[in-house]
Design brief:
It is globular, with a radius of gyration of 18 Å. The chain starts with a strand and ends with a helix. Helix content is about 5%, strand content about 50%. Strands 1, 2, 3, 4, 5, 6, 7, 8, 9, 10, 11, 12, 13 and 14 form a 14-stranded mixed β-sheet that branches. About 5% of the residues have low confidence. A hairpin with an 8-residue loop joins strand 9 and strand 10. It has a single domain, classed as Jelly Rolls, CATH 2.60.120. With about 230 residues, it is mostly beta strands.
């Protein structure tokens, strides 16, 4: 059995393995990079939740995007890309806390609006997420983003951090999905208010619980005894 290793996965602008999901990569990027990938909340009033749409800034007034609860698709949705994804892996993430940092910045206009990320965790044996199994039913919240009030846009880069306790996660050549929502906590005062991802080596990343691989365990799985 291998020794437990904590893995770091970095956010990218690409799709994962030709799926519609956003890619997490173990190769660290060199520089910070602002994106047009996030949410335009405007003056929408809380409580409102919107799923992540990979590579798109979801508009405040797009029909069928904002909900009073974190429902949306309900499951990993390959068409819209509502999850971060990596894998496939065979082994076990031990029961421990996952550390997630997602940095955001106002691109069009920063204002007094406040928000946070909401996460759920899934696994599936295919990269499309079809038939995914829920790892934990809990919706986990990040810290809150308060971007400042820069009138011309380009607000303060704000890291949203989370320490998320998850149970043991056994993977048999399976993919891992982090379903992501934006939650409005305090409404803004301008319809241009937005929050988009900022990627970089310390800006947006996922640090896993310790991961263990085992050739012996793989043989047992393949024989169908577990």
């Amino acid at each position: 059995m291998s020794l437990p290793v904590t893995k770091s996965y970095y956010c990218t602008t690409g799709s994962y393995n030709a799926s519609g999901f956003a890619a997490l990569d173990e190769t660290a990027p060199n520089l910070f990079s602002a994106t047009a990938f996030g949410w335009n909340m405007g003056q929408n009033n809380p409580p409102l939740y919107c799923e992540m749409y990979r590579g798109v800034e979801v508009l405040r007034n797009t029909a069928g995007r904002w909900f009073p609860t974190p429902s949306g698709s309900g499951v990993p949705n390959n068409t819209i890309g509502n999850c971060w994804a990596f894998g496939p892996l065979t082994g076990e993430f031990l029961s421990a806390s996952w550390q997630i940092t997602m940095s955001v910045c106002a691109i069009t206009r920063a204002d007094a609006q406040v928000g946070q990320m909401i996460y759920r965790f899934w696994k599936a044996d295919n990269v499309s997420g079809s038939g995914a199994s829920l790892i934990s039913p809990t919706y986990f919240s990040s810290s809150r983003a308060v971007p400042g009030t820069t009138a011309g846009g380009n607000g303060i880069i704000t890291p949203l951090t989370s320490s998320i306790p998850l149970p043991n996660i056994n993977l048999k050549n399976e993919y891992f999905f982090i379903q992501t929502y934006w939650s409005i906590v305090t409404a803004g005062t301008n319809n241009g208010d937005d929050e988009n991802y900022v990627f970089g080596i310390t800006a947006s990343l996922v640090k896993s619980a310790p991961f263990v691989t085992s050739q012996a365990r793989m043989v047992v799985w393949e024989q169908g005894t577990i």
